[in-house]
Design goal:
The complex is a heterodimer of chains A (133) and B (117). Chain A is 36% helix and 30% strand. Chain A has helices at residues 13-29, 34-53, 87-90, 104-110, and strands spanning 5-10, 58-66, 71-79, 114-120, 124-132. In chain A, strand 4 and strand 5 form a beta hairpin. Chain B is built from four helices and five strands; from the N terminus they run ββαβαβαβα. In chain B, helix 1 packs parallel to helix 2. Classes of the chains: A alpha+beta (133), B alpha/beta (117).
Chain lengths: 133, 117
């Protein structure tokens, strides 16, 4: 039996590459179309980089989910970084805390079916995304 | 760290990205390519991304920056071979790579570059 959940560290740049590969593999196993695989992998790459670069490192938890009608992949990115003071502003195109383009968070949200951002200043940030098959 | 090779063909430089790049590798390519344009007086740069299964905002920005730097150094950049799934995702992400010439494959990209330089 294959695993239905797991966790991967995001402590180096190479971990971002490994996270992408893990998400690619899981979406392939779920039978996602190539476009849907690519969307989920790209969203994961954005969020993994945020956790590493802006959050000072963290982790990506993955879980196969089932709502009774369809199956999907849920990813949760957690870091213990400085947090985001204004999460609403952070979700607008062009908002950037660093040297990025400001498309990471808002772009990732557009690539998935469900997006949840929870951030506390001084404590860290958690972003959950789900994409259904 | 692994380096992405840059091939020189007369006045043109050819880059084929075939690995899932770490951010540092993308930054190094940017450096290497701008140095190569200057060193060889290259007039055109062709970047083949047909093997890339994903382009996120970081890689997208790297490609835009390369094209911008090349333009300032009097060289034209053509991006070729983007997979359809990557193109769909990139536009939905919010990046449409404005100002970068593109072509479907290496052959058409080379033809486009030869006309431009």
């Amino acid at each position: 039996m294959s695993d239905t959940l797991g966790e991967a560290p995001l402590r180096s740049e190479y971990d971002i590459v490994l996270a992408r590969q893990l998400v690619r593999r899981q979406t392939q196993l779920l039978g996602f179309s190539l476009v849907d695989q690519t969307k989920m992998v790209t969203a994961a790459s954005e969020l993994a980089r945020n956790a590493y670069v802006y959050g000072g490192g963290g982790s990506m938890r993955w879980e196969l989910v089932d709502d009774g009608l369809r199956r999907g992949l849920k990813l949760t990115f957690t870091d213990a970084g400085p947090g985001i003071p204004d999460t609403e502003a952070a979700l607008t195109d062009g908002w950037s805390s660093g040297s990025g383009l400001g498309m990471g968070l808002s772009g990732a949200r557009r690539l998935v079916n469900h997006f949840e951002l929870d951030s506390r200043v001084g404590e860290g940030t958690r972003v959950s995304i789900t994409r259904w098959k | 760290m692994e380096r992405i090779p840059i091939l020189r063909m007369g006045e043109l430089l050819l880059v084929t990205i075939q690995v899932d790049m770490q951010d540092q590798m993308a930054m190094r390519l940017q450096d290497d390519l701008t140095n190569a344009i200057s060193k060889f007086g290259a007039k055109g740069v062709l970047i083949d991304i047909s093997a890339l299964e994903m382009v996120d905002s970081f890689i997208g920005r790297m490609i835009s920056d390369i094209a911008g730097m090349a333009r300032i150094l009097d060289a034209t950049t053509v991006l070729v071979g983007m997979q359809p799934a990557v193109a769909i995702t990139l536009v939905e992400l919010g990046l449409s790579l404005p100002g970068i010439a593109t072509a479907l494959n290496v052959e058409r990209g080379m033809a486009l570059l030869r006309r431009k330089v």
